[in-house]
């Protein structure tokens, strides 16, 4: 495979991975709390691509116990080497802000 062919293949794989992560963020399967937060969604998403992972930074919005919340979040999606299957996921968010907005913590 020539250098140009390898670059095209890598670009295609990167696009596939971004499409997979976008679909994952939009699916109900991404929202583990969808029963308690039926309108939970990700907005203002920014993607960062590395060799075998995609990081998504986003605002997590929704309603719980009659209260709206917005929490800045991030998720790292790890892919199988050279493949298009997610093999790991790590989520990060500001728990203190989240709990304060839900009325579970007082400042």
From TrEMBL:
Q: Which Gene3D superfamilies match?
A: 3.10.450.50
Q: Which domain of life is it from?
A: Bacteria
Residues of the SnoaL-like domain: 30-87
The record's InterPro entries line, in alphabetical order, gives: NTF2-like_dom_sf, SnoaL-like
Name the record gives this protein: SnoaL-like domain-containing protein
Q: What is the lineage of its organism?
A: Bacteria, Bacillati, Actinomycetota, Actinomycetes, Pseudonocardiales
